[in-house]
UniProtKB/TrEMBL annotation:
GO biological process, one term: regulation of cilium movement
Broad class of the protein's primary localization: cytoplasm
Protein's cellular compartments: Cytoplasm, Cytoskeleton, Flagellum axoneme
Keywords: Cell projection, Cilium, Coiled coil, Flagellum
Species this chain originates from: Culex quinquefasciatus (Southern house mosquito)
Keyword Zinc: no
Protein name in UniProt: Uncharacterized protein
Keyword Transport: no
InterPro entries assigned to the protein according to its UniProt record, in alphabetical order: DRC1/DRC2 (IPR039750)
Coiled coil stretches, renumbered: 31-111, 212-246
Recorded GO CC terms: axonemal dynein complex
Length: 328
């Protein structure tokens, strides 16, 4: 029984194996047929799958690139907005500066026009004033030359003391002619040169004004002495007149004859105005046009002495000479 079962099982097994082998062969055949029929599709599928993988990878890359570019666009938009705002602000500032500069240019033009007009007026005024100043300086030059001529002319009549001590005290004179050791040194800088020139001119002016003031004092003293001498002259003339009348009456003369004794002043005693003094002429008795020059005090004194001698026939005492110059 068991053997039957075994044999039957073996028979069934063999039968199933044959059936399985047949099915496998059919399967292999169908599979081969399928493979032969689908090989082209499978190759195309593989290509499409590879292409899909590539496309998927490209899409992912594109997504990343799109995200990056989106961020870049957002940043650029933000920068554009910022730059636009800055540009608008700068444009407004430039327009404001332009308006201010235009206003300043207009003001400068107006100031220049006003300044040019003022400069023209000042130039005209300067031309007029310069002409007046030139005439004034020319007049001063003429007066200075006349003063120098008169000073040179008067120097001939200075006494010995006046020549030795011209107008100022000896101590002042020594101070005028003293030379500072610093003045002998060569100036080293421009400031020293300027200081030397300035103080040199100031010192000359100071000495000039000292001499000028002393001369004015001497003139005042001489005027006072002249006034005293004039008063003394009038007094002596009146006394002389009374004396001559008394002498004439005592000699038996008439009053009418007394007038002839009081003769007019001689022409040599008349003082005439000298318009110009020519220093080149050696003779100082007459001026260039033949007119008589002013007489000196010595000539006048001598003329009075001769006249009085003829009238009174007596010897007069010599007149005393006074000097306002301080004796050293």
């Amino acid at each position: 029984m068991v053997q039957r079962m075994i044999l039957k099982l073996e028979m069934i097994t063999k039968e199933r194996e044959r059936h399985m082998e047949k099915l496998w062969k059919e399967f292999q055949k169908v599979l081969n047929t399928y493979l032969r029929n689908t090989e082209e599709y499978r190759n195309e599928y593989s290509k499409l799958r590879d292409q899909d993988s590539n496309d998927t990878r490209h899409i992912q890359n594109h997504y990343v690139e799109v995200a990056r570019l989106s961020d870049l666009i957002a940043n650029l938009r933000l920068k554009l907005t910022t730059i636009r705002d800055e540009h608008e602000f700068n444009v407004k500032q430039l327009q404001k500066s332009k308006m201010e500069l235009q206003e300043r240019v207009r003001n400068v033009k107006q100031e220049m026009e006003i300044g040019l007009k003022m400069d023209e007026e000042k130039l005209k005024q300067l031309a007029v004033c310069s002409n007046g100043a030139l005439k004034y300086l020319q007049n001063l030059l003429k007066r200075g030359n006349a003063i120098l001529q008169i000073a040179t002319f008067c120097k001939k009549f200075e006494t010995e003391n006046e020549s030795l001590l011209p107008f100022v005290h000896s101590a002042v004179k020594r101070q005028m002619f003293e030379v500072d050791e610093d003045e002998l040194k060569e100036p080293s800088t421009e400031f020293d040169v300027f200081k030397k020139e300035t103080f040199g001119i100031a010192k000359k002016f100071e000495n000039f004004w000292m001499r000028f003031n002393k001369a004015r004092i001497d003139c005042a003293c001489l005027q006072e002495e002249k006034q005293q001498l004039l008063e003394e002259n009038e007094r002596l003339k009146s006394q002389l007149k009374e004396y001559l009348i008394t002498v004439n009456i005592s000699n038996g003369g008439s009053l009418e004859s007394n007038e002839t004794l009081l003769a007019q002043r001689p022409s040599s005693m008349k003082v005439e105005k000298v318009v110009h003094i020519d220093l080149k002429l050696k003779a100082v008795r007459f001026s260039k046009n033949g007119q008589r020059r002013p007489v000196t005090c010595i000539e006048g004194n001598l003329s009075n002495a001769i006249r009085n001698d003829r009238l009174l026939e007596i010897k007069n005492k010599p007149a005393e000479l006074y000097s306002v110059v301080e004796q050293s």
